[in-house]
């Protein structure tokens, strides 16, 4: 199975299949590296933030002490504290403020959670699409290669096992390439979805504790 022989045939359809698969593979590994690093940094910063936040003497001191921490939890805490402060200063000045503090904080904390977690969903759609389509793209390249191989063998009149096995074996490389691209994409998608779920659970637990703390806070 010589890839150089396949490219030397100047079959633009088969070449396009290989180039598409190569592009998909590059996208897959770029997404894997970026998302893995981002999840690792987010988890590390969340742990650092949580330790600093809950050791503070007051809520305001806690928020002020973590201004330089780029953690998803820090973003939720800052926006939640800002919502509580705005509620106390401008109570009932607008229609959307004319609700109990509990409901007002719940609304803003949910929005802050969604905002902080949304960036971690980027790239998952690409991985799912690549994992679902790459095998079929490779299979299309195999079918196309077998079709032309059989035509060439028929025109040459050499219907021996040796004459058939070589070209068909080379065509099967496209299917193998498709699987080579799809398998990492599927595994990475499942792993990242699981990591995203764990992060969301940690964030939700922190948001619940923060909500209780804000309700009990007295100016």
Question: What this model shows, in words?
Answer:
The chain has 219 residues and is an all-alpha fold. It is built from eight helices and no strands. The chain has helices at 3-8, 12-54, 59-65, 72-89, 101-117, 124-156, 161-171, 173-216. It starts with a helix and ends with a helix. The mean pLDDT is 80.
Briefly characterize the structure.
82% of the residues lie in helices and 0% in strands.
Average pLDDT metric: 80
Number of strands: 0
- Morphology call: rod-shaped
End-to-end separation in angstroms reads: 76 Å
**Share of β-strand residues:** under 5%
Structural class: mainly alpha
- Helix fraction bin: over 70%
Can you summarize the main beta sheet?
none
Please give the radius of gyration in angstroms: 28 Å
Oligomer: single chain
Q: Which descriptors apply to this entry?
A:
219 residues; mainly alpha; 8 helices; 82% helix; rod-shaped
SSE blueprint and pairings:
Blueprint: H1 3-8, H2 12-54, H3 59-65, H4 72-89, H5 101-117, H6 124-156, H7 161-171, H8 173-216
Helix pairs in contact: 2-6, 2-8, 4-5, 4-8, 5-8, 6-7, 6-8
């Amino acid at each position: 199975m010589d890839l150089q022989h396949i490219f030397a045939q100047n079959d633009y359809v088969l070449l396009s299949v290989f180039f598409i698969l190569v592009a998909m593979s590059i996208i897959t590994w770029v997404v894997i590296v970026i998302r893995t690093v981002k999840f690792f940094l987010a988890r590390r910063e969340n742990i650092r933030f949580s330790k600093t936040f809950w050791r503070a003497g007051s809520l305001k001191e806690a928020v002020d002490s973590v201004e330089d921490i780029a953690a998803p939890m820090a973003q939720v805490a800052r926006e939640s504290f800002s919502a509580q402060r705005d509620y106390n200063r401008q109570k009932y000045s607008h229609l959307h403020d004319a609700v109990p503090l509990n409901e007002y904080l719940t609304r803003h904390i949910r929005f802050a959670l969604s905002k902080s977690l949304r960036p971690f969903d980027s790239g998952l759609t690409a991985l799912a699409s690549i994992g679902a389509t790459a095998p079929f793209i490779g299979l299309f390249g195999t079918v196309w290669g077998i079709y032309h191989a059989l035509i060439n063998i028929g025109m040459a009149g050499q219907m021996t096992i040796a004459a058939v096995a070589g070209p068909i074996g080379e065509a099967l490389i496209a299917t193998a390439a498709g699987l080579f691209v799809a398998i990492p994409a599927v595994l990475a998608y499942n792993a990242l979805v699981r990591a995203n779920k764990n992060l969301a659970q940690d964030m939700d637990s922190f948001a619940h504790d923060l909500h209780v703390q804000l309700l009990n806070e007295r100016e």
